[in-house]
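Reply to dn_fold:

You asked what the input looked like. This is it:
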Amino acid sequence: MTVLGTRPAPPGPAPSGPSPSLSTSQRLLGRDWRLAAVFIGPTLVLVAGLILFPILDSVLTSTTERHGAETVFVGLDNYTALVDDALFHKGVLNSFVFTAYAEIFKVVLGLIAALMLHHMRRGRAFFAGIILLPWVVPTVVTAFTWRSLFDPIFGSVNVLLTDSGIGPALAAAGLVDRWPAEWLSDPNLAMPAVILVNVWKGIPFFTVTFLAGLKAIDAGLYEAAVVDGASPWQRFVHITLPGLRNIMIVTVLLSSIWTFNNFDLIWLMTQGGPGDATAPYVMVAYSKAIQQLQLGAGAAVTLVMLPVIAVLVVVLVRMMRRGDLPSAGDLGRRRLTPGQRRALPWVVVAVSVLVLVWASPHIVWKAAVVLGVFVVLAAAVGRVVSVLAARGNRFAARLVGGTGSGIALLGLLGFVLAPLYWMTVTAFKSDDQIVARTDDLWPTPWTTEQFTNLFSDRAFGTWYVNTVLVSVASTAIALVCAALAGYALARLKFRGSESFTVTILLTYVMPGALLFIPLYRMMSGIGLNDSLWSLVLAYPTFTLPFATWLLVGYFRSIPADLEEAALVDGCTRFGAFLRIVLPLAKPGLLAVALFTLTNAWNEFLFAFVFITKDDYKTLPVGMQSMIFGDVVPQGQLAAASLLISVPVVVMYAFGQRFLTEGLTAGAVKG
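and this is what came back:
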C-alpha cells in the first residue's frame, strides 16, 4: 500500500482578520491588488477612455453650441429646445413604436418557433441552424436584400403577393391602402415594413434563447401534469410560461435596448423617410450632430433618452448578474394581494395597448389582426389535439399536431430563407435580366457578371481588406484585454472587484447611440478621423465589455484546484494563467473571438460617422455608398451581400459548437 503524505495547503483567500503575512496595502486593497492592477489595467484604460470619459464628455458637450467657428456655453438651452422640437418628438415616438411592435412579434413568433423545434425528434440542430441565419448575416445585407424585395419595380414581394391573390386581399381588408403597395415610400407602410425586417432578423435570437429555456424545464413537471389530466394549454400556461419567465424577461429587455437604439437598419432601408415616418431618435441625434455640425444639440438628444435606457439597463444588469428575479417576484407577491396579482398583468397589457393606440392608430389594428391570425391558428391546432387526445384517439392527435407543426415550420423556413434565396439568385443575374424582370426566381443563364463588375468598377477589394484588418485588430485587442480582466475578476482578491464587474455589465448594454458623438469629437481632436485606427480603437466599446463578462463566467467554471496545484509546484500566478487556464478556456476564448470578429465585421454606425474617404471605408459603409440617389445597382449589391455574408456564415458553421459551449459555461454560470 502506498502511503500518501499531506500536501501543503494551497494559497487560499486571505483570512477575514488582520494577518501578519499581509502588508498594510494588501489589507486595505486586497491580497492580489498589485497583480490585479496589471491584469485589469488595459481593460480599465479602454473602458474609461472609450466609454466612461466619452459619456461624461457628452454631458459637457450637450451644454455647448457652435456659433460659426466658436463653441460657446449655453447651459441647458439644448435641452429646453427639445421641448418644442417636433422632429425630436417624432423620433422618440418612432423609436417607441418600432421597438414595441418588433418585440411583441419577436416574442410570439420566437416562442412558437422554439416550441416547434423543442418537440422535434429529429433534425432539431439542422433546422435551428437554418433559423439562425438571419441573425448571423450582416445588417447591411439584411437591409439591402429586403430593400430590393420591397422595390415596387424590380422587387418580387408585390409580384408574388399579386400572383397568389394575397396582395389584393390585403387591400380589400384595408391592411394596405392600395395595391400594388409602395412599401418603403408610403408613410403608412414604411414603418410596418422596417418592423417586419427587424422581426425577421430578431426571431432567431428569441428562438434560440427560448429553446435553451425549454430544455431547462424539468420534464417531470409535464409528466405529473399529464397524470393529473392537464390539457396541453394548461401545461403551457402553468408550466412552460412560468419556466420561461426569467429568460423571457432578460431576452426582451436586452432586445428592447438594442431595438430602441437601432440606427443602421432603418438608415440603410429608408434613411428615416418618407419624410420623417421612420426616423428614430438616434437618427435625429445624427442629423443634428454630424449633418448640421451641432454636436451639443445632438448630444442632448441622446442624453435625454438616457433615463429610459438606464432603467432597462439597471433591471437587466441586476437579473443577469445576480439572478434575483425570483426573489424580486417573491417580494412582489408579499406586497400584492391575490386579486392585485391577477389584475396586474391585465393592467400592464391595457396600458401598453392604450399607448400604442395613441402612438400609432394606423398600425395597431393591423398588427392585432396579423398577430391574432398566428395566435388563433396555433391555439386552434392545440385545441384540436387536446380534444382528440382526451377522447383517446392518440394517433389522430399526433397526426393533426404533426401536420400543423409541419405547415408552420415550412412557413417559418420560407419566411427565413426567401430573402436569402432572392439575394443569391440576384447576384447571378445579368443587368438585363434584372431590368427586364425575366427569370425572377431562377436566372437563365447564371452569370458572374455582377461579381466582375463589382471588383472592376468599385473599390470593393479595398473595402474588403479594410474590414479584415479592422476586424482582426479589434478582435485581438478585445480578446487579450478581456482574457486578462476576466481572469482577474474570477480569481484574484482585490478591493473593488464587484464594482468593476458591475461597471463591465453596465457598459456591455450601453447603446452605441450614446457614444458615437463624443467618440467622433475625440477622434477628430486627435486627428484619427478617416483612419482605420479610429475604428480599431472604437470597436472595443461594444465588444470588450461582453467579452470580459463572458470570460469571467467561463474562468469561474474551471476548477481552481488545478491552478492551486501549479502554484504549490512553484509556478507564478501569470504562469498558471498561461499554462493552465488559457488552454482549458479555449471554447470560451473561441466564442469571444467569434462574437467580437463578427460584430466588428458587421458594424456600421461608427464606420459611417468616422470614415468619409473611399480608401478607408469598410464593407457596410462602402456598400451604402454604392447607391447614388435613386440609382440602385441591385445586382452588384446582391453580389457584395453574398461575399460579405459567406465568411460570417462559415465562421458560425465551424464555431457553433465552441460558441454554444462558451456561452453556456460563461454566460449562464457568470
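Residues 634-668 form the longest helix (35 residues).
Hope that clears it up.
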